[in-house]
Amino acid sequence: MSFMQINDLKVHYPVRGGFFNTVIDQVLAVDGITMEFERGKAYGLVGESGCGKSTTGKALIGLEKITSGSIIYEGENVTNKRRNRKSSFNRDVQMIFQDAHSSLNPRKRVRDIIAEPIRNFLNLTPKEEERKISELLEIVGMPEDAKLKYPHEFSGGQKQRLGIARAIATNPKLIIADEPVSALDLSVQAQVLNFMKDIQNEFGLSYLFISHDLGVVKHMCDHISIMYKGRFVETGTKADIYTNPQHIYTKRLLSAIPEVSPVGRENRKRERIRVEQNYQAEHKNYFDENERVFDLLQVSNTHYVASTSQVKGVL
Ligand SMILES: Nc1ncnc2c1ncn2[C@@H]1O[C@H](COP(=O)(O)OP(=O)(O)O)[C@@H](O)[C@H]1O
Ligand SMILES: [Mg+2]
């Protein structure tokens, strides 16, 4: 059973202009997405820059106003209650940002940064709080003396670990991680990702893992949604998406994953050309005349694809 459901979520930004500064258009940043989260699972949200991933994450935790749709958390409609400081939703759903540096207050010591959610949500004595902070630092592999330092004294990977320590301080159920490793060196990326997996297993966390990188998502996620212009083109398990992709856009993204090995390079190039020709030829079955993605149709128990019903017939 899922503990959280998102139904037909939309976030539209008004575009103002003209002499009277009236609303002349809307940016449909998120335009009708539906998903649900189960305990202990990792969900991937993938798509090109600008497709609406960050807006989705921010809308979920209440940093962005929702135009329509609903968020149900443990049976309660929390759509318009997410900024209520003491609510269990705010304790249980935490976010990690791509830019660990700007999400950590540079004027505060690590101890006070990590203590913030603890003071907001947990009723601890100063002694218990101190112990909790030491524990959290140990979990994220940072030394005890980090407590008294400032964020700028740490490397990018270490800062991301501090962000994670803060995110897990209140024992959350869901962590929304928006491109958490994109700003890090490749070698550090792997470390942070593996560490995020470890704590997921240890604490039974769920992740909404946002990334433009299909390779990273494959490593981290059980279930994946591919986003294009504010809508899902395809959603399914890792196997559905990587071994049985159906949408022309998913196929195109997959064929564009860079391979380090020179072996089979010619074949991959031919395959990319074939995928691209198919994309052009099949376009009208997957996008309407305004380039809007169709509604999702069910392909199997776990797998959904946005296409016209004619295409579904031949799947
Ligand atoms: N505050 C805003 N006002 C107007 N448009 C916005 C705002 N924030 C984001 N957008 C637009 O919404 C779309 C989705 O942005 P975003 O969610 O940041 O995409 P992603 O994280 O996938 O790169 C983009 O077209 C972006 O320009
Ligand atoms: Mg983003």
Automatic annotation (TrEMBL):
Keyword Protein transport among UniProt keywords: no
GO molecular function, one term: ATP hydrolysis activity
Residue ranges of coiled coil: none
Any one of the GO BP annotations: peptide transport
UniProtKB keywords: ATP-binding, Nucleotide-binding, Transport
Residue span, ABC transporter domain: 4-254
Keyword Mitochondrion: no
Similarity comment text for this entry: Belongs to the ABC transporter superfamily.
Name assigned to this protein: Peptide ABC transporter substrate-binding protein
Species name: Ureibacillus sinduriensis BLB-1 = JCM 15800
